[in-house]
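Hey forum,

I'm writing up a methods section and want to include a predicted complex as supplementary material. The small molecule is zinc ion. I've pasted the protein sequence and the SMILES. Can someone with a working setup run it? I'll credit the forum in the acknowledgements.
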Amino acid sequence: MEEKSETEAQVPRRVPWVRWMVAGLLLLAAGLYGVALVALTSTADGMQNKFSSLARSKYLAFLVWQNLRVLMAYGILVVAAAVLVAPVVARWSRRGATGRWGVMWRALSCGLAMHLYFVLRLVRERPYFMPEGKFGYWWFHIFEAPPEPWRTWLQVVVFDFVPWLVLAGVVVWHGRWLTRRWGSRRMAWAGGLLGLLVAAWVVRVGVTHAHGTVAKPAEVAERPNILVIGSDSLRGDRLGYSGYQPARSDGAAAGGVSPRIDELAARSAVFDLCMTPLASTIESITSTMVSQYPHTHGIRQMWPGQQAVERVRANTEPLADVLERAGYETAAIGDWCGAIYQSLPLGFNEVAVSNYDNFRVYMTQAVFLAHFVVPLYFDNPAGYRLYPEIGSFAQFVTPEVVTKRVTDRLRQGAGQRQPFFWHVFYSCNHLPYRSPEPWHRLFADPAYHGKNRTGVDFDIDQFICGTSLEDKWKALPPDEVAQTRALYDGCTRMFDECVGKILDALREQGLAERTIVVITSDHGDDLYEPGVTLGHGLGFNGGDQTNHVPMVMKIPAGGAQRFPQLVRTIDLAPTLVELAGVKAPKAWEGQSFAGWLRGTAKPQARPYYGETGYPFIQFREQGVKRPDLPPMDEMTFIDESFHYQFVLRPEFEDAVVAAKQRCLRTVNWKLVLTPAADGTRHFRLHHLPTDPHCERNVANEHPEVLAAMRKALERWTDERKETMMDGIFPDGEPE
Ligand SMILES: [Zn+2]
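Reply by user p_vandermeer:
Happy to help. Structure tokens for the complex are below, copy them as they are.
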């Protein structure tokens, strides 16, 4: 009883004090919620395409519901903030005025200060969440304000030391406060119980981990595990082992863009030129996994409808199916670029990727990002549990999340008794090249303070509504071009670290010599080479950069090998099944190169045939009037019966195929077919050894090469039959 009176003497009367503190925090939360609603409305007003007006009219109820769901987050934050600010508000309110308004504004100020501290943390750790361009870029300079020698330790103090100190203070204060209310005996019991719970949790985590690392196979599976690791848009010519050197090589950039992949490549089979038939994610991955050209499997543009997807399921034999029949466990693991596996699983029996990349997801994302508290406080495992769809947002599922999914599976014993085939697919290198600290600045000019600091400032509206983007990109000044390339290189280095962690886990589990590891991607990207700007799959201008993918293959007991000969991504599946001792289906169009690796077949360059994808931009072609196609919001619609996906309107399917550019590339020559509006075909021929960026059309100077290649390319285009090298050039390829 004595204790209670002491409490009342020290702290202003208990119940009203707590109540008015919570009221102050609720006021703060209401303010933040209001700001978010205003931000959301202005975003919607700024989006002038057809889809946003559809969002406002047709899906208004859905939008309202999403805004109500977010309220839960605010509620949790008010409770957490009350616990954290209580000691300060209590002390502060003891002196001077302690009326209800006094307590309220004190609580509000403390809450706001804490909120700003977390915003500062976000600027430092995940700057890609900061609304780019909206408030200028002053926040990036905050960390450069203190004198150079102090910066590091000041950040350590503010971000690593202070939080623990504050947390300790809060725990002690609440402990004493509760002791005074409950009495020390009951408090000792509560403390002991809490300690036991923490101890039990620590033991459980330890046991799970130990179980994973100790388990060793009684019987070892005969077939090798197959691990295909890719990063969307990773170019085959921009990795260390391919001879690429980034703009900077000081400090942390010293290892180049890919130290771990380079180390693997040094003891693997490396294919210097591997090409994808269509430089767009879903079309390319389908081609790789079913070993067929797009015109055979039918996915020829990135907005396929349900029928096209079902045709693939019914008519193809994906690699995952073939391996599953041979005893493999199969899984596709990835983030937002891997979401294609949601609508088109390609035989994988487990798909652990982001949710459908559909219109509802876009809308939910717009709501969650407008409510800034979500990225700020809920981009963590607990937050994902509360709002599972966060896992489908481009900015939330980080590469670390994907890597952890893979390494956890390995540590839990995968691949020990039953072989696995996994496609691990990251979004690291995809536009807009966003990456967290420190990757985005690793290869960038420290003096750069423009708007593309942490990612390419990208206007989706222009992509959807028109084709003026080509002109905008072409006008980019040199420092922005350099920055864009530096961002891309940072993304590569981030991917490289993910690969490194997976390789470490493989070795740790004793699986390194029982696993085929393939490093590749779905396509490359343009990075302002001569004749091109940004993007992929839109044309065959410039060199090979959008269709050239990495191909590093580590096979058990295999050593370093180098193959300069041209291979295609459709050749990967036949190679993998041959290496696993499984028969390839007849319907596969690719050709195994396993014999090259084993030394039983002579490596010979193969011809490359390719086509362009969905025409976001119809690149101009000199002297050609291209077919007229409407912008995306007119050519596609949202199919409610197909997971609310964007789907190409059936009436445009033929027009999109007819407008595609085609390409045939041999060792020395590249032929590009461009259809004109009047139905005629325009051809340009490039001699690669003397013109690597394809800037000079030499069709008139080499009529015999043009005729031979044109015949093969038109046969492939019209009859869907490929002609191999000796068929194109029976007397050998001209130099
Ligand atoms: Zn892609």
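Some notes you might quote in the supplement: The longest strand covers residues 561-568. Residues 290 and 318 are 4 Å apart (CA to CA).
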